[in-house]
Structures are given as C-alpha cells and as structure tokens.
Amino acid sequence: MIACPFEDLLFGGARGGGKTYGMLGDWLSHQDLYGANAKGVFFRKTYDELEQVQEFAQKIFPLVGAVYRTQKRTWFFPNGAMLKMRILERDEDATKYQGHEYTWICFEELTNWPSPKPVDKLRACLRSGAGVPCFFRATANPGGVGHNWVKARYVDPSPPMRPFFDPEQNVTRIYIPATLDDNPLLTKNDPNYWKRVEASVGGDKELLRAWRYGDWDIVAGGMLDDLFRREIHIIVPFQIPYSWYVDRTFDWGSSAPFSVNWWAESDGTIAPNGITYPRGTMFAIQEWYGWNGKPNEGCKLLAHEIADGIVEREHQGILLNLTINDGAADTQIWDSDPIISISIADEMLERGVGWIKADKKPGSRKQGWQRLRRFLKAAHKFPMEEPGLFIFNNCTHWIRTVPVLPRSDKDRDDVDFKSEDHSGDSTRYRLSYAIPPAGSYETGVPG
Questions:
Q1: Are 83 and 46 in contact (CB under 8 A)?
Q2: 81 within 8 A of 34, measured Cβ to Cβ
Q3: In CATH, what number is assigned to the domain containing residue 54?
Q4: What is the pLDDT of residues 35-58, one digit of tens each?
Q5: Is residue 259 within 8 Å of residue 407, measured between CB atoms?
Q6: Is the pTM of this model over 0.90?
Q7: Per-residue DSSP letters for 419-439?
Q8: Which burial class, exposed, middle or buried, applies to 234 when counting CB atoms under 10 A from its CB (0-12, 13-18, 19+)?
Q9: Among positive and negative, which fits the CA dihedral 14, 103, 154, 396?
Q10: CATH number, domain at 383?
C-alpha cells in the first residue's frame, strides 16, 4: 500500500489488517519524501474515533521527532511537514476547507459517510504549487451507511490490486485488501485476538465472514444479511398468471432516488416455472429506479414525468396486458405544494397513476423490516410452509441496495435512514398490507 503510486486508494476490508497504522505509515513516507512541501489532513467522523487514531500516532510520530500541538490539532515534523487531525461529522463541514491546499488526504472508515459529496469536496483541495504528487487515501470495512457508494466506487469496477481509471473524476483508483493474514505481527503478539473476535459476534457467521475476509457482498451485522441468499431469492422472470394480483409501490425522491416497484402475489396456483408457491408469496417483477447513476443520488424528475414513465412501462414487457392495481406510496406525496396548491399524488392521478397511503403509523418502519425478514426466511425451506419473497433478476437496483441495508446504530431494529433504503422502503410498503378480497377492491382503499 505504501509503495502504491496511484492517486486514489482504498485500503482494508477486514478486522486486524492494520489499516490505521498503514495510513500513518503512508503519511510518514510522504512527509519523508517531500519535507516542508508535504501538507496532510487525516479525517475521522467523530472525536472519539479520532482519539483512537491519536493514540496510535503518539506511539510512532515522536520517534521521528514530530510534535503535536493540541490547540492547532496538528502534528509538526522536523522537516517542516504538517499533518492536521480533524473530524468531519456533517457533510456541510466540508465547505470549511474550501481554498485549502493539501498534498495528502486520508478518510478513515470511509463507509461512515452516507454519501461521497463531502469526500469529493475535500478532494478538490488536493493540489500543490510546489509540484508535489498528491494522494487521496481511505480505509473501510464492509457495512455502514456508505457501504453502497464505497463498494460501487472502489470494489466493483476492478478486481483487488488492479488499478482502473475513472474518467468522470479523471483519476486512477485501486482497492488494496488488508486482512488479518496480512498482519502476522498481531497474531504473533496477541495469539488470542481472533478468538475474542469470534466470541464477540455471538454466533453470527455472516458477520464473522465479513470481519475475517472483507467480503463486500454482505454487510456485517446488516438488517438482512443473515437471511438473504442470492441463490434462493433471485429467480429468472416468468410470465405472471392472470389470476395473480399485481400492483405497484412507490417511494418518492427527487434529490434522492425514487423507487417504483411492481409486485405479483401468488394465489396458490402453479407458476409458469413449474413451482407451486404458497398463497400470498410475493414476487418483485419489475422496477424503475430514479437515480443519476451515482449511489443514493436522484435524477430530479417531476411528478408528471414519473407518472408518464409509469404508464409507459405498464404498456410493455412483462407488465403488458396485466391488470395493475394502485399500491402503497410514501405519504409525503399527498402534501400539497404551497405555491401551486396541488400534491404530487394529485398530479400523478391526473396522468392516470393512483396510489394508496403507505402505513406510516408509529412503529411501522420496524414492523415492515421484520415482515421483510420473515418473508425472506420463509423462502429458505422447500416446500414452503409460509408465504415468501422472491426477486426477478431484472430488479437490479433492489438486488444492489436491499440485501446490504445497514442497521441503525441508534435502533438495531431499524435500518439507518441515511442509507440507500428507497427500494427497501418501497418493499416495506407492499408487505404492510393485505390485498382486498376478489371483487371488493376500490382505488385508494387498502385491504
């Protein structure tokens, strides 16, 4: 990692890999090469986390003559190099650094930031009038509110240790894994380290796997990672029987993504793939995810544009010739715009797309996630005894975002609301109501 010449580097992925010492060592190398022209800043999300980094720094920086000045929260090195130790708790804090100039920037535990926006603002500070090569460094483990965007930026585009070019940001990136196997000194000096880690997970094999091997396809301690199985829940699409109930759900978003999901509910008759699913089994059969191509960023379509897009999609492909009922939507779409005195729901209804109000009663979020867990678990046993949930493989954004939803640090029974939870919310809405009895359905009245 220290020898890596590329500007943008992610280091880590597992417990015991020596990520923090690696970053501090990388800075020592940088300041040793460029002396007084080396200007660095090291970010953590909170003061408590930064204190831990400072404990490590206090063990090694004084050995090269560096002095820490508490008032300035900065390390000063004998050759004139300086390293600031800072927190970036809120996204808007990044604006404080406009106009600053750094040759080395590090974000420790990058997945703690829900979006790349503050990180990219700080990247703009990487410059050197003295011609010093500039570097962006970050560490991360799987999980956290920023799991999706970090994985999409560093892990998905290329295999580990293989650099790739990002034309949008005009930078070469690389992901270098760090696991316990790469840190033999720790296992030598503390042979019981991993036994304590194993004991701390309480039998959660998925969590242990993430901590041991840095597996980015699961989320350590996520809401669904112990139940979701790609080989079980993701299936090949089939034509929906006309006797099955079909509807759609909607999670509104403009600056954040919106998610429209179409659902089919089995009536217990045999499916075209030859399997008989229990009555009430749910299938996500199609989706429309309103993003701009970047994780957790919306495309800012207007309400009537979304409605027109829904109508267009319901007249083609797998939805063609199906009777599609109005399903649940985020209740905020019924709030009237104070300027035009019309709600998003009314505007969409004028275009032929109606909705019913999603359950937003106190406790409904946590109840919805528990229903989702129950439906996922039911699919594990075959033949199934209870209704389960299956996802057609064309629902790529559901597959990308829902299985890795992180739990909230404040309430472990809820998903972190800063995560990319839009398809998950749309799923909650659908699982939170029963379809009306045949022949009694009226638009706008939930069953």
A1: no
A2: yes
A3: 3.40.50.300
A4: 999 999 999 999 999 999 999 999
A5: no
A6: no
A7: SS-HHHHHHHHHHTSPPPPTT
A8: middle
A9: positive
A10: 3.30.420.280
